[in-house]
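Before relying on records like the one below, remember that each one covers exactly one chain. Contacts with other chains, cofactors or solvent are not represented anywhere in the record.
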Amino acid sequence: MTGDVVGGAGTVEYDVVVIGGGPAGENAAQYAVEGVTVDGRAMTSALVERELLGGECSYYACMPSKALLRPVAVADLTADLGGVSTAHAAPKALLERRDYWVSHYDDSGQESWATGAGIAVLRGEARLVGERTVRVTSAAGERTVRARHAVVIATGSEAAVPALYADVLPWGSRDATGVVDVPARLVVVGGGVVACESAIWMSALGSQVTLVVRGTRLLGRAEPFAGEAVLAGLRDRGVTVLLGTEVSDVRRDGAAATGLGRIHGGLVRLTTTAGEIEADELLLAVGRAPRLDDLGLDAVGLTRDDVTGGRLPEWLHAVGDASGGPPLTHWGKHQARVVGARIAATAVGEVAWEPDREAPVPQVVFSDPEVASVGMTEAEARDAGHDVVLTRVPTSSAAGTGLLRDHVRGESQLVVDAGSRLLLGATFVGPETGELVHAATVAIVGDVPVHVLRHAVASYPTASELWLRLLEELPREFRTPPA
């Protein structure tokens, strides 16, 4: 689907122009125009991408990390499940599996999907140059595109690099998922999702991994018991975890040229409150920031804070990591579907239906054990003024979860509002708990009280029976509607 050439300078016009071709951008481009006609013609959209269509998730984050983690998890399972021979992760095969799942960093399949869906693909750097107007610059030159209805910013995020590390060429998450050279010793600075997950596959590849964590626990935004279980899991596999540790100086001996997943140069030496640490490579995993620089926001009178704060003109939208919300692919895709539907409805003079409150955002950490959560933690619920009732049980307390491994580590918890009896949050820690969290998400979105949840029949013997164990631990009066 092509745009219409308009204007004397050869400007091409589309109904919707999306800057950024990751999952959020793809969804926005699709949902804004799919099946929509205006004045007897089908609406058009264009994706502008400077790197690979499919974005960070497809090539450098979600897909490669899970491709690396799953074989390691299966090997771990065989070591803790009677009746099978113990398996081990084979480094060469592990990296080959990663390469398969990232399509060998070839986005032709993604481009085929986009063009098949009627979405134009424009390669190059995008910059706003006026209202609903974008300039695209590539090796082939410059061209200008204009949106009849809306421009969507879906530029994703980039790894944060504090000044302390700027001169030592640290690895980022892209290097960790794209690892080619396995360092004998790897130091990871950070205690969040990227740090915990990458420590698992890097140790399975043969690296001696040390986590340097400024905070006093791992996964600082999760329930404390979840971080404790992950800490025990990492230490069990030989990862050194230093909590409450500050880094005051970083040096690299003879830094060399970089390359994705390649060791960047000489030894890295860190001065920390736990002593001197020496490693062959340093992975920096201390957060990400919306990628909004060089986007031309000043040309339309906007700042980064306007984008992340949602203070945008009616023709401009931001979705995914660029919006400043949770940096999670599924959240970005949800935002994109909502924004896309809104653009489509506005184009035909309608108002799209939207819920009256923001949806809860689930998250799964593919650690050992797995951590799946949605909604508020206990602390967040109490800080928000809720009268909280907790129910927590060992994840192994249901036959279905107990059968998954011979030794199941972890607990699971529900956070319930005492007055309304509604579920506020849930955390599941244990094997394959990512498959349990969606039920909690549905319960929160649908305002299903716990006395109704008790009558959702769980199949036996499956992990879903864990819900019954949790609900049975609530006070007896929670089995009926509040008076």
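The first strand starts at residue 4 and ends at 6.
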